[in-house]
């Protein structure tokens, strides 16, 4: 186990945090569906299953847990907040409180803390704190409908993006079914959501974090300190 959330895994988490929902996409253009997400979805929570494969299609990792998202204006949030909690195969979670991005590894009792705006800059998770940036950061392609599932494909405009494409699979009511990330070297990560709830109250405590006593804290500059005993 690494001492902090791996960068590729973080990027996938960031994408999931920022690109979660488009409503009634089957009846609208891709741009309209994404605008509905940006303007209309204030909160989202779901159980997730994540499968990662390499460029040869070999499964390299499986994980599961729970995700909570509060966009600006929800749960008292002036800026976007989220909590991405891995439960299996081991516990680890990341919390964005609107100001800081915290990652905690209970096994190591180690916390990594970064400025949220800087850490999320250039990633789809920017959507947590800014509205209407889909078409700024991505070219949007409507993938059409099949078997009651509608697909929206996002193609990053930046040549420095970690991802070649991002696909959102939505059901007939606009609820997210899956998110698929394809990286630049052929790797793929697929996140499947169940037990979905949108625009319901989320306990603000989900978006707060205080380092446990004695935890090792690594900040933006790589400086290591200890949480007060």
Radius of gyration: 17 Å
Topology, number of strands: 13
What is the overall pLDDT average? Answer: 78
Largest sheet: 13 strands, mixed
Low-pLDDT regions: 1-5, 21-27
**What order do the helices and strands follow?**
HHEEEEEEHHEEEEEEE
CATH superfamily: Lipoprotein localisation LolA/LolB/LppX
Outline type: globular
CATH architecture: Clam
Instruction: Please work out how many helical segments DSSP would assign.
Output: 4
Write the CATH fold name.
outer membrane lipoprotein receptor (LolB), chain A
SSE class? mainly beta
Could you tell me the strand content as a percent range? 35-45%
**What is the CA–CA distance across the termini?**
25 Å
* Highest CATH level, the class: Mainly Beta
Summarize the structure in words.
The chain is mostly beta strands and 229 residues long. The chain has one domain (7-226): Clam (outer membrane lipoprotein receptor (LolB), chain A), CATH 2.50.20. The protein contains four helices and 13 strands. It has helices at 7-18, 30-40, 116-120, 134-137, and strands at residues 43-53, 59-70, 81-88, 92-96, 100-105, 110-115, 138-146, 149-156, 163-170, 176-183, 188-198, 216-218, 224-226. A 13-stranded mixed sheet has the order 7-8-9-10-11-1-2-3-4-5-6-12-13. β1 and β2 form a beta hairpin. The longest helix has 12 residues, at 7-18. The protein is globular, with a radius of gyration of 17 Å. Mean pLDDT is 78; it is low at 1-5 and 21-27.
């Amino acid at each position: 186990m690494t001492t902090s959330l791996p960068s590729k895994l973080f990027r996938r988490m960031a994408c999931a945090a920022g690109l979660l929902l488009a409503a009634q996409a089957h009846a609208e253009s891709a741009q309209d569906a994404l605008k509905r997400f940006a303007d209309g979805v204030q909160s989202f929570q779901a159980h997730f299953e994540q499968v990662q494969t390499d460029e040869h299609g070999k499964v390299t990792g499986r994980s599961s847990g729970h995700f909570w998202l509060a966009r600006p204006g929800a749960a008292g949030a002036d800026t976007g907040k989220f909590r991405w909690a891995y439960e299996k195969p081991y516990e680890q979670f990341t919390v964005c409180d609107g100001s800081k991005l915290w990652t905690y590894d209970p096994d190591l009792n180690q916390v990594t803390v970064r400025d949220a705006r800087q850490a999320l800059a250039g990633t789809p998770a920017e959507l947590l704190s800014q509205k209407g940036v889909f078409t700024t950061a991505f070219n949007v392609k409507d993938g059409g409908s099949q078997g009651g599932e509608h697909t929206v494909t996002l193609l990053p405009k930046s040549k420095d993006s970690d991802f070649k494409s991002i696909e959102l699979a939505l059901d007939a009511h606009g609820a997210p079914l899956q998110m698929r990330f394809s990286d630049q070297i052929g790797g793929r990560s697929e996140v499947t959501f169940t037990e979905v709830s949108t625009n319901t109250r989320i306990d603000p405590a989900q978006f707060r974090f205080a380092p446990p006593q004695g935890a090792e804290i690594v900040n933006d500059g790589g400086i290591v300190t200890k949480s007060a005993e």
